[in-house]
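cron nightly-structures :: item 1 of 1
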Amino acid sequence: MILIAITLNILLLFLAAIHIYWGFGGLWPGKTKQELIDLVFGKGNQFPTPFMCLFVAIFLALFSFLPIVWTFRIDLGFNDDLIFGLKLIMGIVSAIFFLRGSFGYAPFVTKHWKPIFVYYTMRVYNPLCLFIGLGFLALIL
């Protein structure tokens, strides 16, 4: 369980760092703003504002600490109410990642996206989201 918690922590902190990078104007994995939009968002020509990128980064960073707190909840002296609340929050986070990972496979959703985004979402983004969702679920079961 500690390995799952550490893996989730590192993954989510890495994703938070990428969102911070984008918030400050970074273009990776694209070379231009439009290429980044096509690769990461799949449609449109407006990149989210720096505020939105940082907003997502904050939540990803907060989510990253949940597995660590869960793993050491007894050592932290959590009572039953805190443990139940934490388990509920982790279940909600798991559901969020499962939904993101699942909807990316739905044809009624992917038909609105650019082909390059569909390619990456099927091979990288969806499996990563499903892995994260499964990791949170594994910890609370």
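cron nightly-structures :: done
Residues 8 and 70 are 12 Å apart (CA to CA).
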